[in-house]
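Lay summary. Proteins are chains of building blocks that fold into shapes, and those shapes determine what they do. In this project we predict the shape from the chain. Here is one chain we studied, written as its sequence of building blocks.
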Amino acid sequence: MHHDPYQPEPKRSRRLIWISAVAALALVLGGGGFAAWKLDWFSGNGEAVSFGKTGTQTPAAADPQAPSQSPSGKPSPSGDPDVLMPTGPKADFKQTTKLDDGTIIAKTRLAGAKSGFEGDVWVWAPKEYDDPKYAKSGFPVLIALPGGNGFPANYWSDRSLGLQKAITEGVRAGTSLPFIVVMPVLNPDNKYYYDGADIPGQPKMGTWIAEDVPAFTKANFRTYKSRDGWAFMGSSSGAFVGMKTVLQHPDKFKAVIASGGEIVPDSPLWKGHQAEMDANNPEKLAQKLIDTKGPEVFINFQIGTKESGKERMTRFVQTYGKGPVKTTIRDIQNGEHNGWHYVRGMKEGSLEWISKVLKAPKQDAA
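And here is the predicted shape, written in a compact code that computers can read:
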């Protein structure tokens, strides 16, 4: 069963949550204060954005003479051969949200070259990405997957959940790496869920997540060639997809934070395709990794103490958490099945956990 952990109450709509929040804030701030708040949050939305220009994330037209970080090699990585400069072509990003620290969440449309699927992708880069001291460094990537239908939006791109703020605060406290966060749609429609897999006869969502989204990220951002700079986080169905993808492609991805998720594939579209479903089953993938002795992957489960499902995680850890499959479970006290509580769990320790597993950006010695 795939829930939508964005909402603590299934019958309460996202629209209602926003209306209630806006109304409450308007009462607190008063008319003039609310207008200023709204202007600050939404000013620039819809404008073109360029990531990676020295010192800022700004509308692309504001700095037409800025140097391109293209395959031409300017600037070129120094010291670390694992650094991959943007390969191009550049995507057209449009701002969707501005955060309090001036960083921007932006959206683009990606036509997947390998999957053939076309969908929206949201991205966020931390302040450090535009710091000249890191201009020649790669950055670790966190691919954030939503629960529920995961279409037509990815709710991790909504500032109200606080994912990006949690990373920013963690960087400041020394408990998180400055991740680039990439937030693709998870499914091609609202009718079914596709288990992040290439189900025969259906859109190739497994290829979209494992191949097209990383290729898009490498085209537009300074990243790492090795799996040491690549991980997933997800909630509910997105947690399942993230864990499954790491186990399926341990040569490309190293770790996952899996919150409140399922353990085995359960899309109704698998009917009649048992062999293909088995090839997307985390239990079978983990056993295969154990049998072949690696490479190591790292799975951090998160589960709220007020939600069900811990027994599935515990059983997985007891059965498959050995050899190259490194597992841990984080209990979120009084946590429920929603994104706000999963972000709290990340702030309480899961961000620090994954930051110790992945590769940090390195400042230019000069």
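What the prediction tells us: Confidence is low (pLDDT under 50) at residues 7-39, 54-73.
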